[in-house]
Amino acid sequence: MSRRAAALQQTGPAARTIDPVRRAARAAARPGAGRAAGPAPSAFDKIKPRRHVQYFTFAEDEPFVLECGETLQPVTIAYETYGRLSPARDNAILICHALTGDSHCASHGPDDPEEGWWEPLVGPGRVFDTNKYFVVCSNVIGGCQGSTGPATICPETGRPYGSRFPVITIGDMVRAQAKLVEYLGIDSLLAVAGGSMGGMQVLEWGVRFPERVRGLIPIAAPARSYPQAIAWNEVGRQAIMADPDWRGGDYYGGPGPVRGLATARMLGMITYQSDASMLKKFGRDMVPARARRPYTLSTLFQVESYLEYQGQKLVNRFDANTYLYLTRALDLFDVSKGYGSLDEALGRIQCPTLVVGVTSDILYPVYQQLEIVAALQRRGRPVEYAEIDSPHGHDGFLIDFHMMEPVLARFLARLR
């Protein structure tokens, strides 16, 4: 076993069962265990003011060591919770967000009009039933909606980290989430669920903390990033860094690389869809104002107008540096790193796993989900596979809720 694999195994809990209430009390009393806090001081001026967001800060006494070897101190995580934690603290479900998501996976009721990115799945009577489950969703480290990220003010310099922020990994995100889960007094998660980058976090949870999860639901995610997905991410990053307003990452207080970020998002939106979905939505329809005079380099087709709209929409809520760092974390993801092989890594998973693929996904095609299933089967692990026959491409996990609901509900009903 490599030194890194040994170190990763040591991050998991002891084999013996510890009463969760005692664990929470001990964690709260332990120096450096973390505390309730406010948002990480940030130069990003588009953090959404949400009344239900909470903040957890740790690594104030001892730095948080990242996989790259660098450190962060302190670290703040923005998170939201839904429902109530049971007296036995055994009904918690962690939901992990995708690349441009955040902690707001659903609204909290009439006093919270903003719908979340998984709104139809999270809430009273829904699949992730908040009358039954205690749902936790956090903004990853490196994010820009309250968690420590590139826009955070570095305590040593008094300036935003910018491109001096250390490179982070999916594993770093998960280890930070584990700190939050421990702070909340949760010894064992009933399930961890998420799609795309969220699905990568799900797999990382199962491999890194096998005794702390009782069910895994990775959706539209690979066990490792493949060259085509890495290539698309690189083009997006280059678009941002080629924007003269990026200024090497030190653009806070100015306009920032809005054109570059918008272009990166336009490329991303193409990879999230499929030829069939674009054909159905747009065909070869032109923008009405230009249809009579089509011989122009200006926006002509409806699909072009759509991509421009999506690019501008992201610019109004997302930090360009965060886009750079999170896409690099996607590229670096390989759940087998440090374990010798994919089979060896996924063999550490002890709980039932539901792997979900989307038939028309061109970003993470279904063969990449089937690779996960095959590795778990070879190791004799309990695994189910469901394929959503969606025309919407990768974004099917954010659109075709009616297809996912029965699959997710059946799996959750069997977890104990």
Gap from first CA to last CA: 32 Å
Total DSSP E strands: 13
Alpha-beta classification: alpha/beta
Outline: globular
Order of helices and strands: HHEEEEEEEEEHEHEHHHHHHHEHEH
* Count of helical regions: 13
Strand content: 5-15%
The overall number of domains is 2
Low-confidence stretches: 1-32
What is the CATH homologous superfamily assignment of the largest domain?
Alpha/Beta hydrolase fold, catalytic domain
Radius of gyration: 21 Å
Average per-residue pLDDT, rounded, comes to 92
CATH-scheme architecture of the largest domain: 3-Layer(aba) Sandwich
Q: Can you give the helix content as a percent range? A: 25-40%
What can be said about the biggest beta sheet? 9 strands, mixed
Q: What fold name goes in the CATH topology slot of the largest domain?
A: Rossmann fold
**CATH class category name of the largest domain:** Alpha Beta
What order do the strands of the largest sheet run in, or round the barrel if closed? 1-2-5-9-6-10-11-12-13
What does this protein look like?
Helices cover 35% and strands 13% of the residues. Mean pLDDT is 92; it is low at 1-32. It folds into two domains: 3-226 and 334-414, Alpha/Beta hydrolase fold, catalytic domain (Rossmann fold, 3-Layer(aba) Sandwich); 228-326, Orthogonal Bundle (Rna Polymerase Sigma Factor, Chain: A), CATH 1.10.1740. It has 13 helices and 13 strands. The protein has helices spanning 3-10, 20-29, 170-183, 197-208, 227-242, 258-271, 275-282, 288-291, 302-315, 320-332, 342-346, 366-378, 401-414; strands spanning 35-37, 54-58, 64-65, 71-72, 75-82, 92-96, 122-123, 128-129, 134-138, 191-195, 216-219, 353-358, 383-388. Strand 12 (353-358), helix 12 and strand 13 (383-388) form a beta-alpha-beta unit. Helix 5 packs antiparallel against helix 6 (258-271) and helix 5 (227-242) packs antiparallel against helix 10.
